[in-house]
Specification:
Blueprint lengths: L2 E8 L3 E9 L4 E10 L3 E3 L2 E3 L2 H18 L4 E5 L5 E4 L20 H4 L6 H8 L8 H11 L1 H6 L2 E4 H10 L4 E2 H5 L4 E2 L4 E2 L1 H6 L10 E2 L3 E5 L2 H7 L5 E4 L4 H7 L9 E5 L2 E8 L6 H6 L2 E4 L5 E8 L2 H12 L6 H9 L21 H11 L8 H27 L5 E5 L6 H11 L2 E4 L4 H13 L6 H10 L4 E3 L4 H15 L1
Parallel strand pairs: 1-6, 6-14, 9-12, 15-19, 19-20
Antiparallel strand pairs: 1-2, 2-3, 4-5, 7-8, 10-11, 13-14, 15-16, 16-18, 17-18, 20-21
Helix pairs in contact: 10-17, 13-15, 15-16, 15-19
Amino acid sequence: MNKRVLAFDFGASSGRAIVGVFDGEKIELREVHRFSNDPVTINGTVYWDVQRLFFEIKQGILKAKEDGGFDSIGIDTWGVDFGLLRKDGTLIENPVHYRDKRNDGMAEFSKKYMSHEEMYDITGIQFMDFNTVFQLLSLKENRPYILEEADTLLFMPDLLSYFLSGVKSTEYSIATTSQMVDLKTRDWSDKIINDLGLKKDILTPIVATGTIIGQLSDEICEELGVPKADIVSVASHDTQSAITAAPCEYEDFAFISCGTWSLFGTEVKEPVLNEASKKLNVTNEGGYGYSIAFLKNICGLWLIQESRRQWIREGKEYSYAELEKLALECEPFKCFIDPDAPEFATMGNLPQRVKDYCKKTNQYVPQTVGEIMRCIYESLALKYRLTFDGIMECTGKVYDRIHVMGGGTKDKLLLQMTAQSCNVDVYGGPIEATALGNIAIQFMSSGVIEDIKQARKIIARGENLKLYQPDNRDEWEKAYEAFKEIIK
């Protein structure tokens, strides 16, 4: 059999081209190209380096050709970010990165035009300053000439697919991250767009996840010397690709898609819109088969990654394993931070911000690298517990295990602390959940795999999940109560 597809997965620091090979029993992943995905700051604005990234996509296609070829391509990135095209199809400017300061305070500012309660009732999406709707509101208020010139808005994976195919479309899962989609109609919300004074005519029709939107253009095929291949709108929001690959053969499960961000939630058939979900500010994102990922965005491994970058800037080249070891050597539960506090959202000296937060909240101020890391690890695990309790309150369900997927599954200390904090078994894997989901959807789109149930069964069969079990229950329960007092 040996059917082959090509997935491009763009993460916070790197992008990868991965060939998926399916022999009828299992999916084999073959990474053929890896490249950096660093934002570029120019005159105070943080941009995607999109032209270089498209060059890397072409290199990935060439290497996949050398590896044996492929029948289709699917692209996933994080949500919310977009590019704007002129009428002639050229980019107006490089897409702006969601961590750019233009987004600061825009969610609060939007109340001038529309209440958050009304917006949540329509979209079911968690309020965050960088959601697409608030990025567009920032443009409207501060750089209206950009929107006046715009003919088409394409989210990043759709933009890259357009560069490959010439087809302009918007995939469902990435569209829902915008906070402009009505979850009842699964289409753009005229109410939100009109009330905020935005332009609807720049938006393209929303297509179902898994739609084959076109093929590699003649120009790309000639340039790279490759045959035609389908372009598939996979679950192009990377979180939804990861959830597609959840190694579960049962319906009700809790998950953490763990990477730079931690996406903690469950999969449901219908949106959860109630007073508890509004209070917790939980999101209802669209997924494969119009499923709903009911989840909370939590600042995840960013805290560790950005701290490590700061120490490297100071000349201290710690590996992640060394940072984990230093954390383990320190006394537990001395201080906590709220991982989602606004001071931790931007690039810079994060270790100093941890110290400042602890001082501001009248706690012990961590002094060493190990103490800072211990504070971050424990705070993440306790924020997971807070979110886990909230998810169960909102859904009225109890979950006896948590599946942790993605690159964060390599962080054994975080997964063990998660089991301890949440007092349930934690299963780690698959590490390559996003790529597996992207690839599985391509196989489902071509009929090679029948449906998502079969896909998840195939993925579960091919993974050796790592089990983490809770202990030290009393100590973690006391820490949880102290944590809630600090962050309230």
